[in-house]
Amino acid sequence: MEVSQKLTDRLMQLVHTAEYRPSKPKHIAAALKLDPDEYRELRRVIKQLVIEGRLVYGGNHLVIPASAFEGGSDTLRGKFRRAMGGGFGFVRPGDGGNDRDAEVPDDIFVPPGKTMGALEGDIVEVRIEPGRRGGTEGEVVQVLQRVRRQFTGTFQNEQGSPVVYLDGTPYEHPVHVGDVRGMPLTADDKVFVELVEFPGEDGLGGEAVILERLGTSKNPAIDTLSIMRQFALPDHFPEAVLDDARQAADAFDDESVPDDRLDLTDKLTITIDPRDARDFDDAISLEREDGRWRLWVHIADVSHFVRPGGPLDRDAQNRATSVYLPDRVVPMIPEIISNHLASLQPEKMRLTKTVEIEYTDDLVITHTEVHNAAIRSDMRLNYEQVDRFLADPLQHRGKWGDAVCDLLSRMHELAMHIRRRRFKSGSLSMDMPDIKLDLDRTGKVKGAYLVEHTESHQIIEEFMLAANQAVATWLDDQELNFLHRIHAPPERRKLRQLSTFLQDLGLTKQSVESRFEIQAILDAVAGKPLENAVNFAVLKAMSKAIYAPNREGHYALDMEHYCHFTSPIRRYPDLSVHRLVQRLIENRSPANEGSRPDDSFAELVKLGHHCSDMERNAQQAERELIELKLLHFLKKKVGETLSAVISRVFADGLHARCIKLPVDGFIPVSSLPKDQYRFERRGQMIVGFKKGNQFRLGDQLTVKIANVDLQDRQLFLEVVTNHSASSSADRPRERNSKKPKYKAKRQTDRRAKKKRRRR
Asked: How many Cβ atoms are within 10 Å of 358's Cβ, its own excluded?
């Protein structure tokens, strides 16, 4: 008891110091210099103090003092994040508007029925209370600030009352829009509205005014505008931002290399990007000398054009990321910079932050340095061209010349060497392929395909990872605060769920815990019908990668030091790291040796949250627009058949991924061949126990497009043929041969009774 009290005192002293940052128990144990036995006791003490209300668990079991919550009360302010489905959400403390809150981590779980109708991003006040399964959970007691009041939706006239069904909200019921006489509106029109009264927890009672008629929902060209409005994506730059960009352009001399830059314009340099890319933010040079590799990763120096605190910078920070929609790009920085001055175009002098890395043949890094440099790209290549070169190098020598072809061969050799070592060390490869749409001139879908991650992509990926890791290691060695790209290890609960899922499929007989075991499973299903389902399950088990100043490493990459540095044209975290690098380079002069560039940890927490949220918003917008355009395309193909693979199995139906056209559809149990079905978790299948139909995860199907619901953005399919599992539809049943013994006995007893009655 005395030991626990002493440990309690030390713990409480630590968490109330000004230097304390919300930490996991293992980091607290390291700070207190505890041995393994004391660490186990520390965890027990923390749990007891949480029960007593003196400490609170934040997201990912970060420990925070209860006094951080509004002066010690049981309420706090934070940003609400609604989960997709289920009616529950999370509150991220620290986004409520004051600096002290900024040090409080995420997330407080808010169960269904206690969200008070809060929407994604709203600032709320939440009361902390003991959770039903231990720990803490919250109840929203007040919505303090609505982050959005404007939404897109579909106009309808129901029983003489004009209403709008809102897009991108959990509300099943429409909101009323008052008198719309004089407005050219018809049923199913897409509109842009502003809510004047938000619906309650039950989704009823909302009112809105119509701001703009976007167009008919039957026109696919309106999809992009609807999604941009729904996700609050800007469709233009303010004039002050454009003026700031023009001034930066006017001040730039693209003819001569500045005196303070390392002149690398004579070094052979190439860019490799997607065929339709417009901005080129990275280029590569590579030399082989004296048994060593010398790699230069050149990154566009956007920080040279975007002055801190100016209109251009404030707008870029607010956007935080470029958004790549199927038919347009919503850039973070105006095109005069992103597609021109900062873009590493061929035969033009461009300013870069260049990471120089020297490797031995065994990939031991012997030297790393970051330069302010100037380059002149010799050739722009795309991934398809490089893949063709790798397949037949000799064919391209006459066209590209020996120098470029030799450079590509060196790049391929080094990148594959780095890649093999990375996976051998425990890195994971679990990216889901991107969907690319083929559009005609009007923006309508002609087709779609998955973007294959070929060796040309892998070459650039490895060099970008190397540069990101090198910069993060350099900055961490100097103990500076900056935005890391963090990928926390998966929670044990999610790993147990993943293990159960894989065991049910018969892919393993033991629990899956290490990266090596997970990668072995991914390799085992690569190219097989189960690949998509298993990759999705692994991704679901993983934590979400975020931006934060904490030094927690990147689990999937197996890297202790990692940040984003290589895409400052399209990601604000990269730009913020570039600025820190610039300050370090400037501080190398003797006159500035005494100063240390160091950003406020609390401010970086806020910036990391904002950038992570905007990244998530951009990803959702991209996914929803692709899905919406594909649904418009499929609306005209109801009744047609497609090949598909069962990708997920639930008690109420199946999800199937179409093969030729990469889109997911739902097959309700009610639409399956007539039978009495049950869901069997072990084996991940739905089985008909009357007629023997069976639908298992990974089964290959022929399906028919049954219905396309544009309002709910859902594709419904029907099974035509199951090519993988035998069923009554595919073969005749043997009469009576499969009857249970007890059923056969009962029928025999009935016959015997009838005979006795006749007698």
From this structure: 16
Q: With b meaning 16 or more CB within 10 Å and e meaning fewer, what string describes 725-740?
A: bebbeeeeeeeeeeee
Q: Which two tokens stand for residue 302?
A: 């956007």
Identify which of 150, 155, 215, 147 has the alpha carbon closest to the alpha carbon of residue 180: 155
Distance CA 23, CA 602 (A): 14
User: Residue 344 phi/psi, 5° resolution?
Assistant: -80, 70
90 vs 120: CA distance, rounded Å: 10
| pLDDT tens digits along 663-693 | 889 999 989 999 899 988 888 889 998 888 9
The alpha-carbon radius of gyration of the chain (Å, integer) is: 30
Alpha helices in 354-454 (DSSP H): 383-391, 394-400, 402-425
CA-CA-CA-CA torsion sign (332, 335, 338, 339): positive
d(CA 347, CA 376) in angstroms, rounded, equals 6
Strand, helix or coil at 680? strand
Q: Distance between CA atoms of 645 and 724, rounded to whole angstroms?
A: 10
Q: How far apart are CA 430 and CA 339, in angstroms?
A: 31
SS3 of 241-305: HHHHHHHHHHCCCCCCCCCCCEECCCCCCEEEECCCCCCCCEEEEEEEECCEEEEEEEEECHHHC
Q: What is the pLDDT of residues 112-146, one digit of tens each?
A: 888 888 888 888 888 887 776 556 788 899 888 88
Q: Given a cut of 50, is residue 97 above it in pLDDT?
A: no
Token pair recorded at residue 305 = 């054009």
Amino acid in the structure at residue 88: F
Indicate the range of 6-10, 53-57, 192-196, 541-545 predicted with least confidence: 53-57
pLDDT of 643 > 50? The answer is yes
- Are 301 and 204 in contact by the 8 Å Cβ rule? The answer is no
Contacts of 521 (CB under 8 A, 6+ apart): 502, 507, 508, 512, 534, 538
Buried b (16+ CB within 10 A) or exposed e, 411-447: bbebbebbbeebbeeebbebeeeebbbebeeebbbee
SS (H, E, C) 299-329: EECHHHCCCCCCHHHHHHHHHCECEEECCEE
The answer to whether residue 751 scores a pLDDT higher than 70 is no
Query: How far apart are alpha carbons 676 and 614 in whole angstroms?
Result: 46
- 3-class SS of residue 613: helix
> Position 482: which residue type?
F
3-state secondary structure of 333: coil
- Minimal CA–CA distance to 393: which of 310, 455, 327? 455
What Å distances lie between residue 229 and 172, 190, 197, 614, 678, CA to CA? Answer: 20, 11, 19, 15, 42
Helices assigned H by DSSP within 587-638 = 601-635
* 3-state DSSP helix/strand/coil % of the chain, to nearest 5: 35, 30, 35
176-185, 695-704, 735-744 — which is least confidently predicted?
Answer: 735-744
Compute the half-sphere exposure of residue 174: CA atoms within 13 Å on the CB side of its CA: 20
